[in-house]
Amino acid sequence: MALMRYAEALRLAMAEEMERDPSVFICGEEVGQYQGTFRVTEGLMQRFGRDRVVDTPISEIGIAGMATGAAMAGLRPIAEFMTWSFALSAMDQIVNHAAKITYMSGGRIQCPVVFRGPAGTGNQLSAQHSQSLEAWFMHVPGLKVAMPATAADAKGLLKYAIRDPNPVIFMEHAGLYSQRGEVPEDPDFVIPFGKAAIVREGTDVTLVAYSHMVSTCLKAAVSLHDMGISAEVIDLRTLTPLDMETVLGSVAKTHRVVVTQEEWLNVGAAAEIAARIGELGFDDLDAPVLRVGGADVPMPYAKKLESAAIPNEQDVITAALRVTD
Amino acid sequence: MAKLTLDPRDTSTDTQELLSMYRLMVRVRRFEESLYRRYREGKIGGYLHRYDGEEALVAGVVPLLRRDDYILCTYRDHGHAISCGVPMREVMAELYGRVGGCAAGKGGSMHLIGPEYGFLGGDGIVGGPVPVALGVGYAIKMRGGDQVCVCYFGDGAINQGGVHESMNMAALYGVPVLFILENNGYAMGTAVERSTKQPDMVAKAAAHGIAGELIDAMDAQVVREAASRIIGHMRATHEPYFLEARCYRYVGHGVADNAQQQRFYREEGEIEQWKQRDPLASTRARLLELDALGEADERAMEAEVEAEIAEAVAFAEQSPEPPLDSLYENVFTESTGG
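The joint structure predicted for all components is written out below.
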């Protein structure tokens, strides 16, 4: 184990996989000479050369297509979007090409590509830079979606994503890049997709989270404990595949659940999870499933308004108190 | 039309090559005609985009490629699939939506595929295959081989942003993609001059630093000679190249674009005028001139092609529909667990 930042863990994952497999390469804006906009790819160009850490022009369709085509031809590309907000112009390559080619070809073509980059809210970056849109990608058959909450998960999930034979949407949270955590140094350490982690055990209410909301829920659980409520916190780690077994197992124990997400609440990931709990775990519920999420507005710039748009510890506590009342 | 760069009367192509190109073009033309009949009979669903008139563009290029080269194209892909070597029966079965199809009935007309022949498929999105081709070309570059990736796209695609992003990056990295613009004059019903103020496509490629030329793609010999020279050059330089291939489709954009509909965008007599330069007819005339295609040879060739099509139809007819439990197969490739 070594103490490192989330961003360093991502870099270590890529460096280890590039060392292990010569078909892995990175392409994106400012990933090489500039050392990465958020320093995630720092030093990798010096180590692996310009052909494997490829600086691109500001051309998201080209970046996504380059990665998709190289994957179809047998390489394992990692395409970095400077932020997921910039990936919107590449949606045709991601959704119509990478996600569908395996199915459209009757399984004859594989597309082992990773699309990664920062997402999330919370730095007064305003409307065009504060979003993650994970529900869009969850919605598309053929895409896997991972959103790590810790440094160790960032490493283990990214390594798994690179080895996975399918296109993976890998959403990092910009607000977590500098968070430190203990990370296994073992180059064989990977975290398989579809296995949620119970990050705090409890008996009265289940708090379902992923990405940055995991730490928000953990803080809420501490406060709830002080109020005499035992909260169990689940980190989903991946949204596709979705580990409903762990969620339903927890609900069977607590009978109360709050599903949280940072992104807009309307038609979000939490809505899907809540619906599945209703369909599959209704008999275990002693209270309606509640959701906590972001305000359905383009992110405002003013700090006070921005804070009001992002779900916080108090929002989770309020919902937990409602379902345990 | 701008001046063509090659003399269409140059006859240096070997007679055997000419004969083999002719045979391939006959196969593509007769196959398309047969598909249309099957479509009218209700045996084929979805869209059907025929290649009639553009056959020289596959016959003059694809046979020059090796198995380890790559080809991507548009949804007008039946001729490309067959030229790459995908068995006609598998293409027919795919259009029938049968399990014996090249994509097991999951792709249909626009998504024919044949990875073992280097054929990475048709693409239903205008401009869609071009960014993918950039990536395929980059894979060739990273592996250090002398393969090429041939990417066909239409004149409608030249106005898509992703096409220009990809051409810019292909030139920047020096990847061996041969961009072939199938300029058949119309993006569905929109003539080239109604979609761009700069109809000089070679100039557009040049703006990205990609060398290119304009050829008359109604003549299989012209196409083959240009492609042979260009592909040879690319295998040595690994650089991208751009070919604007002037051609014409005799039929509508798709089946729904019928004769009545086409009157909205084509000039009267235009189709007949282009048919004067039909690639099959001109190649046949040359073969007759060279005394390389006797009456009996020709009858035998047509009969062989008809038999191949009849066999493909019989295969498709008896191939089962995909089982219902295949519905959820191939959404993902099974992970080996990292």
